[in-house]
Design a protein that fits this description.
The protein has 14 helices and three strands. With about 375 residues, it is an all-alpha fold. The protein has a three-stranded mixed sheet with strand order 1-3-2. The longest helix is centred in the first third of the chain and has 31 residues. The N terminus and C terminus are likely disordered. It catalyses: H2O(in) = H2O(out). InterPro entries: Aquaporin-like, Aquaporin_transptr, MIP. It is found in: Membrane.
């Protein structure tokens, strides 16, 4: 695998003439070529960067939403297939909840979201949901213009995935969302609202708020949808996503009378999550439970009883043994800093005048303070 090299151009394995010289010995040009980037297409290089980026984001959201809902719809179609004779067109589910069936559907949605969000987050953000898009626009993580464009892509992707599943799998499409178990429209509305609020807030804290575990955000987001589906599939179908409910209705050419709750409920949930996120941000939640993203050096230099700002420690700093730290008393930030860092690592600002003029390393390893938001 380590010897694999990617060549530039369109399908270089088929159309690259240099491949015809294989066996005649490597040319100097090929010897120097190590994983070159594909050449940008003139079609895209002529476009302004803003327009090109919007197009790429829309394409990513379309494909991502399609893949997410395709696998989720396919699993739901399998779970909802009645155990009857071949050729039956019944789509009625058995009375009462079927835990195995509900678990299967929840796993399909949760895992499909986790995988596809992990794939597409570098392309478009991996949103796949108009309610999530609205929430990220409200907190300023996504511009409203970009949000409107990827909303269109999400709706198209949902319709395409529902249509493909209906065509590929036998029997009628049985992935629509509807109220069941005696659930009223008001109950369904608030179920969708609270479940969507939980999902959107999970995305805010795991993906929008950058931290040491951000690279694992798709896993947490997928699990968030999984537990929401466990609670909501039986009563409302567990939509949490207007596109997820809209696509199958278009494919079936039928909109139930309660379809509106699958728009209003998720959008209200997005507003609730955005409001709570604004509340905790305005209250500086980082100071309530500080140090969650600190490494060992930062945790050692951190003393919340005196200063709640996050210490930015020199890369050359070393930890002292626990005994020496416990046995000495510290009376100032400068004293704490000098005891935990090499003699050339100092705090910046007015208190950093202890550096020698001739010390070249002192200016390169200045120890300064930064807020948790920075």
């Amino acid at each position: 695998m380590e010897n694999l090299q990617m060549k530039s151009g369109f399908l270089p394995g088929l159309f690259d003439r240099r491949g015809r010289n294989k066996g005649k010995g490597p040319t100097p040009e090929l010897e120097e070529e190590k994983m070159p980037e594909p050449k940008p297409s003139p079609l895209f290089t002529r476009l302004p960067d803003g327009l090109r980026n919007h197009f790429i984001a829309m394409a990513g959201e379309f494909v991502g939403t399609f893949l997410f809902l395709f696998f989720a719809f396919a699993g739901t179609q399998v779970a909802n297939t009645p155990q009857t004779t071949t050729g039956s067109t019944s789509t009625n589910l058995p009375q009462g909840p079927n835990p195995a069936q509900l678990l299967y559907i929840s796993l399909c949605f949760g895992f499909s979201l986790a995988v596809n969000a992990w794939i597409f987050f570098r392309i478009s953000g991996g949103l796949f949901n108009p309610a999530v898009t609205l929430g990220l626009c409200l907190i300023g993580a996504v511009p409203f213009l970009r949000g409107g464009l990827i909303f269109i892509a999400q709706m198209l992707g949902a319709m395409a995935s529902a249509g493909v599943v209906k065509t590929l799998f036998p029997g009628p499409l049985a992935v629509t969302t509807s109220l069941s178990g005696g659930t009223s429209k008001a109950q369904g509305l608030f179920i969708e609202m609270f479940l969507t609020a939980q999902l959107v807030f999970a995305i805010f804290m795991l993906a929008a708020e950058k931290h040491k575990g951000t690279f694992l955000a798709p896993v947490g987001i997928g699990l968030s949808l999984f537990i929401a589906e466990l609670a909501g599939v039986y009563y409302t179908g567990g939509s949490l996503n207007p596109a997820r409910s809209f696509g199958p209705c278009v494919a079936n050419h039928s909109f139930p009378s309660e379809h509106w709750i699958y728009w209003v409920g998720p959008l209200l949930g997005s507003l609730v999550a955005s409001g709570f996120f604004w509340f905790i941000k305005s209250a500086e939640y980082q100071t309530a439970n500080p140090g969650q993203d600190f490494d060992d050096l930062e945790a050692t230099a951190y003393h919340p009883e005196e200063d709640l700002t996050r210490p930015v420690v020199s890369p050359t700093a070393v930890l002292e043994p626990a005994a020496s730290r416990d046995g000495a008393s510290r009376t100032s930030k400068e004293g704490r800093s000098s005891s935990r860092l090499p003699t050339r690592a100092l705090y910046g600002g007015r208190g950093s005048g202890e550096a020698k003029d001739g010390d070249a390393d002192a200016s390169a390893t200045v120890h300064h303070k930064a807020t948790l938001d920075g």
